Amino acid sequence: MHSEGTLLDKYGRRISYVRLSITDRCDFRCTYCMAEEMTFLPRKEVMSLEECLRIATVFVGLGVSKLRITGGEPLVRKGAMWLIERLGALPGLENLVLTTNGSQLEKFAAPLYAAGVKRINISLDTLKADRFRAITRIGDLAKVLRGIEAAGAAGFRRTKLNTVMMRGTNDDEFVDLVRFAIDRELDISFIEEMPLGEILGRNNTFISSEETREMLKPHFELIPSAENSGGPARYWRVPGSESRIGFISPHSHNFCDTCNRVRITAKGELYPCLGQNDATNLLPALRAGNDDAAVRQAIVDSMGIKPFGHDFTQQMDSPQVIRFMSMTGG
Ligand code: SAM
Ligand code: SF4
Which ligand is the nearest neighbour of the Cα of 137? Predict the structure, then answer.
């Protein structure tokens, strides 16, 4: 199952990509991601930044080459830059990337770039300020747009916008969002909403990637592309533009067979699959002492519980996974 320097699951898939949530907290409350009143983890249950660094270092020792920092909102974690600077200098970690809601990027874009972060994903579901406020329950669109500008000014290229598709909420803006991305040489990925956490009415708002592609076709010539960014998105290109239009389709195009990733929550649980409840708690091994061997062994053992896949489509209004996306890390 495991040879030196590689992590293989029981189906022979090589795990080379880890998504590490460094906080479950967030300065937004997006309706599809969180409940209005959220109870966050007590601080002592959250991994320290030193513990995050140790976990990442052990994974890199096991052959992981790509690490995404996520959350919650990773940039609201106090000291996040301390961790990111060290990760940026970690030998063997080829690809350090970040997912953010963009609210703090005006301040952090330049230091993130200097620390060696290769690429940023920024969530953006709408270009209308009032709608943005309704979806995020609290966010300020102008600040996020300034954050997107700041990322470009700091040197980030191919920054990717993530848009969750919601019928009746933002489906009249998909064309505008693609234009916005093309005009700024950004990529954009449309995400099918996933049934994570108990939020009612998801079946009414769900839109498939295919439906969105049909919506875009009268406005853009979409050319299928074989490109792969190491994630679950499938890409299309528009002639004359470098921008890629991606679709993350956990319902209509299940990507489990090539899954190369695991997720670590802010409290040190390793989730081998976003759509299943099985997890390994790495915290006891981390807090037992300074010896990384126990952490390494717990990670290697967790490969045995990585399931072949998930099925979200049956679960939109009765989720089997009751933790929110902000818990598992997007
Ligand atoms: N706060 C950061 C952000 O918003 O980009 C990082 C964490 S967030 C959980 C990561 C991604 O998950 C975001 O792009 C968000 O839109 C997406 N997301 C959250 N809940 C989702 C759901 N139920 N279905 C699909 N995508 C979801
Ligand atoms: Fe926060 Fe990101 Fe979830 Fe929105 S999607 S509530 S920004 S963690």
Answer: 2
User: How far away, in angstroms, is 34 Cα from ligand 1 center?
Assistant: 10
pLDDT in tens, 20-64: 999 999 999 999 999 989 999 999 999 999 999 999 999 999 999
Does the C-beta of 275 come closer than 6 Å to ligand 1?
no
User: The domain 2-328: what is its CATH number?
Assistant: 3.20.20.70
Judge if pTM exceeds 0.85: yes
Asked if residue 236 has its Cβ within 6 Å of ligand 2, the reply is no
The number of angstroms, rounded, from the C-alpha of 169 to the middle of its chain's C-alpha atoms is 22
Domain ranges of the chain: 2-328
Long-range contacts of 291-295, Cβ-Cβ distance < 8 Å, separation of 24 or more: 292/54, 292/57, 292/58, 292/61, 295/54, 295/55, 295/58
| Residue 130 near residue 175, CB atoms below 8 Å | no
CA 297 to chain centre: 26
